From TrEMBL, chains A, B:
Its cofactor is FAD. Gene3D superfamilies: 3.50.50.100. Transmembrane segments: none annotated. This is NADH dehydrogenase. It comes from Paraliobacillus quinghaiensis. Signal peptide: none annotated. Keywords: FAD, Flavoprotein, Oxidoreductase. It comes from the Bacteria. One of its GO terms (molecular function) is NAD(P)H dehydrogenase (quinone) activity. The keyword Protease does not apply. Residues 5-322 form the FAD/NAD(P)-binding domain.
Length: 402, 402
């Protein structure tokens, strides 16, 4: 009898943790496991704002897949997914094709620019490891250009962040820490530098408790961040943004867009039925009509039965989905009943740069400042522990004893 | 009786060492000493190729002037010199004016592009601390652009160095060390990267012993450097150079010109008589016709009486000139006879990146490889010792016990 073939697309939080769980729960005789990913490394998407600001060493945020996934158990295929053919149980890759018995789709998100003119062309995005370190380099390059005699150019040291959601605010926090350091390194007066955060919604961090929002805003304003809230970005050019009802032009050579994400376009191109760009999965995390296709993470529209609204696209949810997905694949193989996904909210902490942070944990308890920051590190390290045990925590963790 | 006022223009090797010697040899009652410099720091011009390649920490190459020059003894004026009026004994600064009794001009060099079209606009140069760290940033930026999806652009990772003189070859050597590191950091295959060194003269390192030249070239070629010797650069564009009799176009987004330097333009604009852009000083290092104006370093045309040719513009010569200049100013003040400058050649060592180097010492003995590299460090540290004693060697030296 042929071994069933499990193919996982994407080594993000969902794909990596599902692979890990399958490796733990299935023996080598029970299934063939294939992980398809563009690179031979996994990166921590929730740390990319730090890579982009240059506040952590870039390599701390990425993990070689072979460090946590046994290559004798799982075949890594370094490839780009072009299309899924769920009716034929095949995946088209840039340079090949794969068939599968069970498919796990964890292809993550893309930048969504809502048709704002110039945004797709001119704005940077904290979207992948490569794009994030490009932002880091771009920021330093601006400082060196300033010192290289281009200082009269307006906007050279103005950094605009579009969007005040989780990523936008976390990135602004890192900039507020990093830019004064760059000023020192490049002999630039801090007053030459502007950080402007622009958000169309009436508040930053929608969905967060009001006290936390107020704390975050004050913390960032204290460090020089300018907010333009309730302000639409109308257009983005090579060296400026046009904002608000009066079409104010802000000269800026660095515009980072964090204002919108959408699921990977492969889903739509593969013919899956979409809800706001995502696949509206059933309670067992399978695509409607396909018993053998699981859709996880930012590609999945998962309803919260309690609130009647979908869960937000977070790492925490993706990781929890991975557990259920692995168990359900095993159940399918053994013809056992499948489990329903239930989210266990462990809280959310937003880093605001340096020793600053805020958030809620478990029962909704609020945390501020250093204790929130410590909790953020605990959350980060917990994931590393699940993925690669104590060795990975020591190697890539935020608290490291040596 | 009014104290004589000694004004020194430029805190390069010549200006710094003269200031240091004057401070040591004259008491606070004997003279007022004023040092004029664009920045509050001195930098090691002979280390700038390392700053530009990113092979040393940029700050190791610069020294705060206040760390080695006592601010109670010497007044530092952070200003840009616009013109010298030797007949009125005045110096015009960007924002002011200074008069002097004795003047020391050590304003260094500028890029000379010999009218090659596009060179002044598009080529970078290893000319100052700021321009050198801009090159460092620019190089890293190219790698991040490549990883950010621009990889199909030709010339993105081609690094052209114009000129195979001392600086050009030393810089090429550093690139040969640094670029493989950047490839590793940015997940780029080394075969994507080109280093091309272009020289119009029939050989690299003119003036060096043939065996040393052969060694240097082989060492660099072994590490992947391409040489185009006896090849003129005809034109330089935003993203290419046109070279040779057949007008070959080499696509390159990084062009660093080391092929020519000339003395600071202030000299000509101040009415000094020039020989190839420099002031042909007498044996006591004074400008013809002005008893109280000393011209040192790259601004001075100093004849080697033995060979009948001028000395090359090196740090070693500038530092030795400083000693004579300080003594001669003291002699002038005391109405004593002045000394003639005699160059004591201690040899020359060229670094070729990493553990590679070659050169001659003292009696013309040739050194290769690691022993040459060690000697290079000794030379570098010796200057630091003269300038700031053992404390400065520990702080900024190349050999550091801790």
């Amino acid at each position: 009898m042929r071994k069933p073939k499990i193919v996982l697309l994407g080594a993000g939080y969902a794909g990596m943790m599902t692979t890990k769980r399958l490796m733990q729960q299935l023996s080598i005789e029970e299934a063939e496991i294939i992980l398809v990913n563009k690179h031979n490394y996994h990166y921590q998407t929730t740390w990319l704002h730090e890579v982009a600001a240059g506040t952590i060493d870039q390599n701390q945020s990425r993990i070689m897949i072979s460090d946590v996934i046994d290559p004798l158990r799982v075949t890594l295929v370094e490839e780009t997914v072009e299309k899924i053919n769920p009716d034929q149980k095949k995946v088209t890759l840039q340079n090949g094709e794969l068939d599968y018995d069970y498919l796990v789709v964890g292809l993550g998100f893309e930048k969504a620019t809502f048709g704002i003119p110039g945004m797709a062309e001119h704005a940077l995005s904290i979207q992948s490891f490569d794009k994030s370190r490009y932002i880091r380099e771009h920021i330093e390059y601006q400082f060196s250009r300033y010192r290289n005699g281009e200082k009269d150019k307006e906007g050279l040291l103005t950094f605009v962040v579009g969007g005040s959601g989780f990523t936008g605010i976390e990135f602004v926090g890192e900039l507020a820490e990093k830019l004064p350091q760059l000023c020192k390194e490049y002999d630039v007066d801090l007053s030459e530098v502007r950080i402007v955060n622009i958000e169309a919604a009436p508040t930053i961090l929608p969905g967060f408790d009001e006290a936390l929002v107020t704390y975050a805003r004050r913390s960032l304003e204290d460090r020089g961040v300018e907010f333009k809230i309730g302000t639409m970005i109308k257009e983005c050019t090579k060296d400026s943004v046009i904002v608000g009802d009066d079409n104010e032009e802000i000269k800026a050579e660095t515009i980072v867009w964090t204002g919108g994400v959408q699921a990977n376009a492969v889903l739509g191109e593969s013919g899956f039925e979409l809800t706001k760009g995502k696949v509206n999965v059933d309670g067992t995390l399978r695509a409607p009509g396909y018993e053998d296709v699981f859709i996880l993470g930012d590609c999945a529209w998962v309803m919260n039965q309690e609130t009647g609204r979908p869960y937000p696209p977070t790492a925490q949810i993706a990781i929890q989905e991975a557990d259920i997905c692995a168990e359900n694949i095993k159940a399918l193989m053994k013809d056992e009943p499948l489990k329903e996904f239930v989210f266990d909210n462990k809280g959310t902490v937003a880093s605001l740069g340096g020793r600053h942070a805020m958030g809620t944990i478990f029962d909704g308890k609020k945390l501020y400042g250093l204790s929130a920051k410590m909790m953020k590190h605990v959350i980060d390290d917990r994931y590393l522990f699940m993925l690669g045990g104590p060795r990975l925590v020591l190697k890539k963790g935020k608290f490291r004893p040596f």
